[in-house]
Amino acid sequence: PDPTKLHIHPWLTHGAPFRIDLASSTFAPLPLAGGPHWREGTEDFTESAFHPPLMSLRIVHPRLPFWPVELAPSIAGSNSTPMMNINNVLRGLHQGLHKHMGQVDWNSLTEGDQQAVTGAFKARCRAEAVRIGGSPEQLRNWEIKTISEGVRRVDFLQGRTTFKGLVPIPEASSLLLLTA
């Protein structure tokens, strides 16, 4: 491998043996049918995400131009070198997309964008209730609870929330584009 070029672990580009719905309130990678067996928390998820290792990472998406997800490596132990692993990147991305949006952010949108984000927000709240399950009354209560928590950054993806990978941005060694 070219030591000057950033290499991204295949699980973060196109070759993941799992599916992640970034809209779900719970970080829960689901195995792909017929894919290799793995479990979250196994050493597979602690493999280095990048070579050479990155000390910081910014993940951007065209629908989130003002809200990049900023990540830094975790330190596994007192004698460990900081390293960004697959788990850090995926969990950090999920957490970053679930941050609340403020009124100033909302007011910066056009009326058309507000309508699209509102539709995605309502769909996410409904889907979250269905994921939890229960009686019709429980589903409605869960949907109301989720709605009361407000719009999140993930809603700006307007329903395109299945993680498809990260793509390097040329000329920017620590900037990656989210594909969803």
From TrEMBL:
Q: Which domain of life is it from?
A: Eukaryota
Q: Indicate the segments forming the DUF6699 domain, all copies.
A: 38-168
Q: Which Pfam families match?
A: DUF6699
Q: Which InterPro entries match?
A: DUF6699 (IPR046522)
Q: Kindly provide the name given to this protein in its UniProt entry.
A: DUF6699 domain-containing protein
The major lineage groups are:
Eukaryota, Fungi, Dikarya, Basidiomycota, Agaricomycotina
